Amino acid sequence: MFSSVLVANRGLIQANCVRAVKELGCKAITIYAPNDRNSAGVRNADEAYELTVKSSGIPYLDIDQIVELADRLRVDAVHPGYGFLAQNVEFKRRLNEKGILLISPEFNAIDLLSNKSAFREFGRGLGMPILPGSETSSDVEELKAAASDIGYPVVMKATEGYGGIGLRVVERESEIEGNYRSITSQAERFLFQPERVYLEKCVKNARHVEFPVARDVNGNRVVFPERECTIQRRFQKLVTESPCSFISASLRNKLRSAVEMLVDQLDLKGFVSVEFLLDGDQAYLLEVNSYIQPSHAVTSLLTGVDMLREQVSIAAGQPLSFGQKAVDTDKVAIGVFVSAEDTENNFAPSPGKIDRLDLPYGDGVYSLTNVHTHDSVGTFYDPIIALVMTKENNRDKAINKMRTALDCLHIDGIRTSIPLMRALMAYPPYLSGDYDNQFLTTEENRDRIFESYRTPLDSEIASLVAALSLHRDSSKQHLLEQARSNSKSRIWDMASDWFNRQK
């Protein structure tokens, strides 16, 4: 086992990696930008080092600075978490030159998996179903011609993008150039190759599933129950269910067989996730992520396997401590990511100070967070601040438990996605499985979810707020009188009486 591991990330994954490394008896070292100084991962690490923030760029992407620190501290390994440098070939090479292991697949695998376009061709060569797409190009006119051949809408993808970065949905030809410029601008900031992108057919009304896989140095592998991550915003997952309740047993077995063949062909070591897009019963291979996924904790709760600890152990050369039967289960787990965003304002960032943080607890309820009461939340990085999970005997019970958990979750001082998630867990189409990857993409859909959740009391409160607002503004008194005459609610009269008593 390693003596020390540097966790080169932030947020939820930093906190969880620090925990896993310490539980394995290793020294847990981490890094932080100044605005993350008080995060849970930094507080709990054995050692933490502040990164220098340069005039341009993101400190967590500063390969020179992180490699120099890892070398100076003589760590055995670096855990990259997800995003940032997790799938960066140059980062792995630089660490390797210093005799430091990056916890990720081998060079040949990570080189292929970090290039989405090259991986498409690899999958095609294995006979895997691939979405219609184009060759890579840096020429806008070539991209326009390719999009016309594929048929709109298309998804424009950077070959080395990650975590929803470097992806754009293009509805018409006039949007090609602007989206290309946007992706190349992101590339400079997030350290992926800017000059070449490719196109894929955009399949709306589809489902998104991923199969986590563990494979050790001896070639022993375990395929975990699939996770459904269909409900997303801006290509980032907000709700995870495992297993998926809405695919047939025959399709599940077909996909599992494809996953087994794929990871064996790649000779992967460690943890990866194989992602598919489901258009009805037609499955398309999307990509293989060579890093631990944000939803890994849902699988850990479902199966009892601590995926982060196992990932570190496999990287240290140890065999898998469990077999396939250990992860086969008839239980269901659900995970809800909570973000510091205003979901009624198109998921606009909601920075500020957290005045109150109450996490839910109970049998089959598990929460992860990287913030505390009185912490400040900024707009610099991923807005996800908590993950709430439930586990039960079936999906309906897991959802009911999640409703209770979300009712017990309180984060005051900033706007969060909690109200939307509460509404979603009671929304009939979600309960029946009548949803797809467009579920939260439009304001109309989100309004429909909110409206279904509102009670008569909510309407009364809204009326009271409106009445008080109109009373404060004498220029709008006529609107108040009109509302009083047209509404059956006594709230308007109550507000008027209250204000009259204040005079």
From TrEMBL:
Record's signal peptide: none
Coiled-coil annotated spans: none
Keywords from the UniProt entry: ATP-binding, Ligase, Nucleotide-binding
Domain ATP-grasp residues, every copy: 120-316
Domain Biotin carboxylation: 1-445
PROSITE patterns: ATP_GRASP (PS50975), BC (PS50979), CPSASE_1 (PS00866)
SUPFAM superfamilies membership: Glutathione synthetase ATP-binding domain-like, PreATP-grasp domain, Rudiment single hybrid motif
Database matches in SMART domains: Biotin_carb_C
Name by which UniProt lists this protein: ATP-grasp domain-containing protein
